[in-house]
Structure formats: C-alpha cells, structure tokens
Automatic annotation (TrEMBL):
Family of the protein in this entry: Belongs to the peptidase S10 family.
UniProt keyword annotations, A-Z: Carboxypeptidase, Disulfide bond, Glycoprotein, Hydrolase, Protease, Secreted, Signal
Protein name as catalogued: Carboxypeptidase
Single Gene Ontology MF annotation: serine-type carboxypeptidase activity
Signal peptide bounds: 1-26
One cellular component (GO) term of this entry: extracellular region
Superkingdom per UniProt: Eukaryota
The enzyme's E.C. designation: 3.4.16.-
A biological process term (GO) from this entry: proteolysis
Cellular localization per UniProt: Secreted
Organism per entry: Medicago truncatula (Barrel medic)
InterPro entries from the UniProt entry: AB_hydrolase_fold, Peptidase_S10, Ser_caboxypep_ser_AS
C-alpha cells in the first residue's frame, strides 16, 4: 500500500472511530456502531458498522470489528468472518483495505475511497476482526496480556467475541456462518473452528453458533508443506520457469529445517523471490500498487528463514 493510501486509510479509520464512538441516548449498541459514511466514500446501498466487543472485562480486553452487510438481501445471505494472519497483521489494513473489502483507499492528496468490484460482501455479510488484542485497534488494559498471548487465548477471545457480537446483532444469529482467513490464519481458523464445534455440543441456545465451514488461503500450516506448496503454486501459474522449478525441487530438501538449506538451494530460492519484485505474490493478476514495490516487498530467503523461526518459536 502506498504512503498516500496509508495516510488516507488512517484518516478514514479516525473518522470511523468518531462515527461509532458517539453515544446517542436511547439507541441500541448496534445503532451506536452504525457508520453512515467515510471521507471520500462513494455512495453505497449497504449498511456498515464498526466498534469494540469486550472479551475480558476484568482485564479490559476488547476486540475491534468492521462489519459490512451484503450488497443484496443481507437478511438471507451467509455471514463470513475474515481473519488475517501474521501473527500481528490487521484484518482491516490488509483484508478490508487491500484484498476483499468493499473500500480500497486511493493514493491522492485528499481522502478517497474506491469501490472494490470484487468485494466479498457482494455474496455474504462480511465481518472483519482485529485479533488478538494488540493487533490493529484491538487492545487490552492489562500489560501482561501481551506477553501471554498465544494461539489458545486468541481462539478463546475470538469465540467470546462471536458470542457477544451475536448478542449485539441478533438478526444474523441464525445465518449460516463461515470463517475464512490467510497466512497464519492457517492456525487461527482451524483452532477457532474446533473451539466453536466443541462448545456447540454443550452450549445453550443463546451461545450456539450456526457454524457451516471454513476457507483458508495460502495457509501457514507447517514449513515443509508451505514451502513445497509455494513453489508448486508459482510453477502452476507460470510465475517461474520449468528450469527454476526443476532446480528448486531437485536441489532443495524441505523436510530439513528451512534455515539449514544449502547455499546452492538458497541461490535458487532467491531467484524465485526475485520474480515477486515485479508481480504481487498475493494477487498475481492485479496491477501493482506502487512502482517501487521491490523496495517494499523485497523478499529474500533470509526473510523466509526469519518467518519460519518465529513460527517455530510460536509453536513451542
């Protein structure tokens, strides 16, 4: 995302904050969360809401959401929860503003939003969640929470968020519910799904979630599966040549720890990453957002090793 787009997104979020933080006497929490418009927003025929849901009142922990009703017949369309990965990536800064949300910030001197013609709220009610606490606008008033965060707490907080969100938006409680995400959501989505299914067996009708399925894109599962998959995907989509594909699959052994690959393997992998200096690896057929993409997304094998090391530490 370009600097101008980032600044515009910050302005949009600031006004978004003002919109939902105003308290109106005699209205419901749902109505208080209603967002009627944003700077530079084109006219739309769907409702949007944003706000905080408490997940732990004792610790002062709350998660931020942004919800877009479906463009057409929201009363019958399914509800989809979107989670970005990281860990630490904002579902609003990435999922909403760059990938599948209805609004994309534009690089201009004044706040300007562009409608995304491929927004997922054309087919579903779309709920973006900033998770865990500390990501995006989600927060905790208990400092020790940050150092104690992990996949287990993240799943529990997200489940608590959903139960409380449905209390604020009861008209969507009976809708078919799906969870989708990318990257480290390869951990978030299955773990939250398991927790929902386990709790549904013994939950009251009030806490039951009409859970139907999951979707995960470029999922972070484990190093061997992920690294093999990214090479296979690039070759299948003609991003890399037959020769480079052959060299990588012949020379590299992904059953070994990623940081222990040979220099020969690293050389071939860096050729693979060089291709993504001119192609967006997260959206192969979309135009590049800015010309100096190589300076911003300059991938190298050493960065891949760092990410893999971080994931290894998180698993432990």
């Amino acid at each position: 995302m370009g600097l101008g787009s980032i600044i515009n997104l910050n302005v949009v979020i600031l006004v978004l904050y003002v919109c939902w933080s105003k308290q109106a006497l005699g209205v419901t929490e749902q109505e208080e969360d209603r967002v009627y418009g944003l700077p530079g927003q084109p006219p739309v025929n769907f409702k949007q809401y944003a706000g905080y849901i408490n997940v732990n009142e004792t610790h002062g922990r709350a998660l931020f959401y942004w919800f877009f009703e479906s463009v057409d017949q929201p009363q019958t369309k399914p509800l989809l929860l979107w989670l970005n990965g990281g860990p630490g990536c904002s579902s609003i800064g990435y999922g909403e503003a760059e990938e599948l949300g209805p609004f994309f910030p534009q690089n201009s001197s004044q706040p300007k939003l562009k409608l995304n013609p491929y927004s997922w709220n054309k087919t579903a009610n779309l709920l973006f969640l900033e998770s865990p606490a500390g990501v995006g606008f989600s927060y905790t008033n208990t400092t020790s929470d940050i150092s104690e965060l992990g996949d287990t707490i993240t799943a529990k907080d997200s489940h608590t968020f959903l139960i409380n969100w449905f209390k604020r938006f009861p008209q969507f409680k009976s809708h078919d519910f799906y969870i989708a995400g990318e990257s480290y959501a390869g951990h978030y989505v299955p773990q939250l799904s398991e927790l929902i299914l386990d709790n549904n067996h013994n939950s009251s009708e009030e806490d039951y979630i009409n859970f139907k399925g999951i979707m995960i894109g470029n999922a972070l599962l484990d190093d061997e599966t992920d690294q093999k998959g990214m090479i296979e995907y690039a070759w299948d989509h003609a991003v890399i040549s037959d020769g480079l594909y052959h060299n990588i699959t012949t020379i590299c052994n992904f059953s070994h720890p990623i940081q222990n690959q040979t220099d020969e393997c690293n050389t071939e992998l860096n050729k693979y990453f060089d291709v993504y200096k001119i192609i967006d690896m997260y959206s192969l057929y979309a135009p590049m957002w800015f010309s100096n993409i190589s300076n911003v997304r300059s991938h190298s094998f050493s960065k891949l090793v760092l990410v893999s090391f971080i994931n290894l530490e998180l698993k432990n």
